[in-house]
Design brief:
Elements (H helix, E strand, L loop, with lengths): L1 E4 L8 H4 L9 H15 L5 E4 L8 H10 L3 E5 L17 E5 L1 E6 L2 E6 L20 E5 L6 H14 L2 E3 L5 E3 L4 E3 L12 H26 L1
Parallel strand pairs: 1-2, 2-3, 3-4, 6-7, 7-10
Antiparallel strand pairs: 5-6, 8-9
Length: 217
């Protein structure tokens, strides 16, 4: 099984009381909860692709963390992965460390980058049933105003009609998924699980905006 997750920020106390307002009583409590959620899902032979910002801790702390996490690990480098490049780091825990990758997951292309790519490779490709053949998985923006802007861009893109090379009118595909750990309650998810999670969250956002609009009218 292959899983994805982004922006865990182990050892980063500011995630609790300022940035994400995660609400844990301490950074130790946050770390233990996230390890339990990870190991409750991931088995030793599973692959987990971390889409950046795994750990804010020291190399010693990060090595200890890596020894506790189940699965075969792969890392898309994030801007806060400051442990990388330190000679003491146990690199044997990573199958690879890259800034960008494209791979296939059950016949679908997955574009991986810590930073959201709004015009990603393969964006327009659909299968014979009109389903997306490419997904762009990202992190970095957490659940911030930047994510709200990205959601607006995606909605605008999906509502834009073009005429393709065959002369057929169709909407522009836009399948960008923020794999922010808080969206999955800190649990690594498969691509299909992230698609369901993203669709559910998008539907909830639309419903919330409709309610707000009705209250203001």
């Amino acid at each position: 099984m292959r899983y994805y997750i982004a922006d865990l920020h182990f050892f980063h106390a500011a995630m609790n009381d300022r940035m994400d307002c995660r609400g844990f009583g301490s950074v130790e409590e946050m770390n233990e909860y996230m390890v339990a959620k990870w190991n409750g899902k991931v088995r030793s032979r599973d692959d987990v692709i971390i889409i950046g910002d795994l750990s804010w801790g020291s190399v010693k702390d990060t090595n200890a963390l890596l020894g506790r996490l189940n699965g075969r690990l792969y890392l898309i480098q994030g801007n806060h992965d400051r442990f990388l490049g330190k000679k003491e780091l146990d690199m044997s825990r990573f199958g690879w460390v890259k800034s960008y990758e494209e791979l296939y997951d059950n016949k679908r292309k997955v574009v991986l980058c810590h930073y959201p790519i709004m015009c990603y490779n393969g964006q327009y490709r659909l299968d014979d049933q009109g389903m997306p053949k490419t997904y762009m998985l990202y992190g970095h923006v957490h659940d911030t105003q930047d994510q709200r802007l990205l959601e607006q861009f995606q909605e605008m893109t999906r509502n834009t009609v073009i005429t393709d090379a065959r002369g057929t009118e169709r909407h522009i595909p836009c399948n960008m998924i923020n794999c922010f750990c808080k969206y999955s309650d800190y649990e690594p998810l498969t691509l299909d699980e992230w698609i369901v999670c993203d669709n559910r969250r998008r539907a909830e956002n639309i419903a919330a905006r409709q309610v707000e609009k009705e209250l203001l009218s």
